[in-house]
């Protein structure tokens, strides 16, 4: 029987799906400085990271006491975008507030 153009040829599936590693998560870290007012830090945390006043205060105080504090953990592109957004917001306010990103262990 000749094959016409609309006949479907079923091929056995030989490919096995490679195990996909979950994308590495990145930490966004707030770095304490001696210049940026506490209220401003909290405002940035609320604006960029959608934190409540209370959570923003706790994160800011942790960074104040320990030098740094993890703000959130997310995909790399989101982490880098959010960190830059927070830095830009601080710069526009005239403050040296710093956020860094690093892979989560």
Which band does the percent of strand residues land in? 15-25%
Mean pLDDT: 90
Instruction: Give start-end ranges of low-pLDDT stretches.
Output: none
Fold-level CATH name: Ribosomal Protein L30, Chain: A
What is the CATH top level name? Alpha Beta
Estimate nothing, just give the exact number of structural domains: 1
Care to count the β-strands? 3
| CATH homologous superfamily descriptor | Ribosomal protein L7/L12, C-terminal domain/Adaptor protein ClpS
Structural class: alpha+beta
What is the CATH architecture assignment?
Answer: 2-Layer Sandwich
What's the arrangement of strands in the largest beta sheet? 2-1-3
SSE order, as H and E?
EHHEHE
Residues in helices, as a percent range: 40-55%
Backbone shape: elongated
The biggest sheet amounts to: 3 strands, antiparallel
